[in-house]
Amino acid sequence: EDQVTQSPEALRLQEGESSSLNCSYTVSGLRGLFWYRQDPGKGPEFLFTLYSAGEEKEKERLKATLTKKESFLHITAPKPEDSATYLCGGGSNYKLTFGKGTLLTVNP
Amino acid sequence: EAGVAQSPRYKIIEKRQSVAFWCNPISGHATLYWYQQILGQGPKLLIQFQNNGVVDDSQLPKDRFSAERLKGVDSTLKIQPAKLEDSAVYLCASSLNQISGANVLTFGAGSRLTVL
What we know:
The structure holds 2 protein chains of 2 kinds. By secondary structure, chain A is mainly β. Chain A has strands at 3-7, 10-14, 19-26, 32-38, 45-50, 56-59, 62-66, 70-75, 84-91, 96-98, 102-107.
């Protein structure tokens, strides 16, 4: 059975304090490793897809990386508007399995 | 481009009552998904359709949940009878391409169900 585990469950940062979120996965036949952002009361919003170990993608203050067993979402100099739940998902041949998410709070 | 539309946004019912949720995906998207998200957890796939056919419903509690996607466009998810543990947000998503774990999903805002 496919499994995706995210840590920490919650993370509180000061504005400008860089950190990383972790996603470890066991997904048979991984087709893609996904990161989504979810704001309160809204559906998840797509951020990145990573397809192979060693791949990196960046968007503003976010950078996602992928190894054979885990992915990291690095947040550089975060701002309060980066506060959200970040979901990691592993895509097998035909479906996407999500982790529980990391609730990120960035204080001004 | 219009997003994924869902209704109602909120619903409160008594246990053993029934409820239905509606989803209209992005125009032209062949694949439609229903996810259940319990508070503090990640979304869990309930069922996915390719056009109007079911591809995977292995995690759908079929004794109380049903879903259909007539004409391969919009979809309805029904719960009858509801239990307390069904309290959750029901998310609909769609993707352009055929079934693949590499597809990017576009989610709706969700329907929040509270069962009392």
